[in-house]
Amino acid sequence: MDTIVTELARYASGLRYEPLPDKVVEKAKVCILDILGVAAGGFASDNAQVALRGARALSAPGKATVWMTGERMRAIDAVLPNSVAAHCILQDDWLQVSHSHIGAAVVPTALAMAEETGRGGKDVIAAVVAGYDIEDRAGTLSVPAFTRGFRASGVYSYFGATAVAAKLLGLDARAFANALGCAGAMCGGVLQPWNDGSMEWSFQEAFGSRAGITGATLARDGLAGSRTVFEGSHGVNRSFSGSNEGEREALDRLGSHFHILDTCFKRFPTGGANQGSAAVAYALQAKHGIDYRRIRHIDIAVPKTGSHERMNYAGIGYAGPFHTIDQCLISKIFAVAVILKSGDMTIEAVRREQRDAELLALCRKTRLREAEGMNGWDLRMEIGLDDGSVVAGSGADIDQAHLYLSWPLAVEKFRRIAGAALGDARCRQVVDLVASLESEDSVTPLLDCYARGT
Question: Which of 15, 24, 62, 324 has the fewest beta carbons under 10 Å from its own?
Answer without folding.
Answer: 324
